Amino acid sequence: YAILHAIERDPIHCCRELAVLLHQYIQALSAFLGSEASGQSRALTMKNFIEQNAARALTIDDIAGCIPLSRSRAIHLFRDTYGTTPYRYYMELRLALSQSLLERTVLSIQEISDRLGFMDYRHFSGFFKKECGISPSSYRRQVSNHTTPEADDFL
Fold it and tell me: Which residues lie below 8 Å from residue 49, measured CB to CB, with a gap of 6+?
């Protein structure tokens, strides 16, 4: 309200002050909007990194390391943008790749485990069973369409 009273008393002088205030407001708004866009861009960078590296073992430090933010800030930013943590997104992507390879190839479970960067067959089987509730071999038996395209088409 002080600015309104000042404008009434000295409109010419106050116009300059008002212009400065307006300029500062626009700069602050621009910085705020820029940080929002920058956050989405960084979240997209993490998402792309995960998708490009889903066939290898990743840690949250690997994922957060692709952008210049702390591990906790990276997790928070990704969750705000995509509604899940980066590591959960990575695990869901690996599960989808696993299911696709089990459904559409004749690769052994060991070969699938190797292609997806798991430490060993048991680690892959444990991961798959935890996520799906059944073993990879049981899952493969349950799927009905056993086509056999080249495995390289999937990775």
Answer: 63, 66
**CA 94 remoteness from chain centre:** 13
- Burial-class residue 79 by CB neighbours within 10 Å (0-12, 13-18, 19+): middle
List, for residues 32-86, the tens digit of each pLDDT value.
444 555 768 899 999 999 999 998 889 999 999 988 889 999 999 999 999 999 9
User: Residue 85 contacts by C-beta under 8 Å, 6 or more apart in sequence?
Assistant: 75, 78, 79
Q: What's the residue count for the chain?
A: 155
61, 63, 69, 70 alpha-carbon torsion, rounded to 10° = -30
